[in-house]
Amino acid sequence: MSDISKPLPRQVADAYVDDLIALDPVLGTYLGVKESARALPDYSPEGRQAVADLARRTLGALADAEQLPGADSDAERRCGRLLRERLTAELAVHAAQEDLRTVSNLSGPAHSVREVFALSPTETEEDWADLAERLRGVPKAFEGYRASLELGLAKGLLGSPRPTATFVEQLTEWAGDGVGWFEELVAPGPEALRGELDAAGRAATAAVAALRDWMRDVYAPAVEGAPDAVGRERYALWSRAYNGTDLDLDEAYAYGWSEYHRLLAEMKEEAQKVLPGAATPWKALAWLDEHGTHVEGVEEVRDWLQSVMDEAVDALDGTHFELAERVRKVESRIAPPGGAAAPYYTAPSEDFSRPGITWLPTMGETRFPVYDLVTTWYHEGVPGHHLQLAQWTHVADRLSRYQASVGQVSANCEGWALYAERLMDELGFLPDAERRLGYLDAQMMRSTRVIVDIGMHLGLEIPADSPFHPGERWTVELAQEFFGMHSGRPADFVDSEITRYLSIPGQAIGYKLGERAWLLGRDNARKAHGASFDLKAWHMAALSQGSLGLDDLVDELSRL
């Protein structure tokens, strides 16, 4: 632990960030720490234990800090509450040895390694030298990850078969056919480092292929026949980690169904405006896939998505938000191939030298329906993830470094982003039936996530009033069928989504449950203030309080 004399909770939290960066240089790169640029984390059992030991020491330091004068201020109290909740949840996951069976199509150690190279600076020869050194660490990082999975196999802690199969396919794509992704990455590097970069790229590709071969030949056969679903106990553990609360899972499941029925009625009404006589809303969406507004071309869609965010910034700043100049900047990029199908966002570095970035996986497509993208970029970009996470970074000096970055609670962030979609509908930014049906389809997807994520992992019964297999118990196959029936997205996206839910249980439900928390907090604040309620002021206060779990979010939002 860093040497701080009589630290208060925010100082304890920030010392934890400093020490965690030393263990996790990928985190350092996300935060823009130059010193992290040459290293990768230790994903071995020993490396994971070091992270857990740091969390325990930090909780001890926090307990001492909370006894000091000044620790009961709102700023210190809020930070201390977040730090305790997050570290306690993370330690519970570690104690259950979940690190020993982490296999995902979206968020495992191997994905973190690859994604950090997409964010690594390459502007100078020194940057490229740092990248080459980090590339040389890829084999060791993958060996550490493999060691964790090997220990998991020895202990009978098995990953899910379906995410394993998908991960093998992803590794195969990263390894390439002759030239791998890491070798392509270094191709634009300076001639002075050509030999060094090429050698490091080849070594990284060889490490990808070696991990792929082991996953395919050893790990996949070992987990064959293991359940894809995690069961109630493990699900509750992960749900706490992603949502910052001990949810009543049966109530959450029922809420997902209530939102499903509400949204289905709205979708049917909107679908008739798009395609009169459409048998289902998804028939109307299929019609839009062929005949609706499209953007042609990969670079063209990147430019168009940039314009969507730029227009949103100009329209919302000064009216519903008050944005600092550096928060106004956000970039649209095309995601590297070989990842999951869902778009995503990366926050700006702490000094904003790297802006917030939205990423679109094209999945080989070159023609993009507008109805499917507008709401998504309100979610990923503005006023969604970008405004929240960039604002946290902007006010980090008033919060703590921890609250603005490492202490992020998934359901808080995803709930805000879904609230942002709804806000844009409320403000009239979806003026035609085409875009509004796309928005409702996105909302429906988040409701069906609650249903199938909880339903298939817990093996719950499908309600009697469901139009789909009433009275049966959820299976992975039924979940995929149901999700596909209630989504305007292509089959490969649906397949990727179900695999995602199997590999990160409890994360997907945070969108709707987080949105519910944000809406309730806003409603409570509006009732408290009456006619004097100022939505712009509430937005900025809400976005400037840093991360909170759902246990605390409604309470804090209601006070604003």
UniProtKB/TrEMBL annotation:
One Pfam family from the record: DUF885
Name the record gives this protein: Uncharacterized protein (DUF885 family)
Organism: Streptomyces candidus
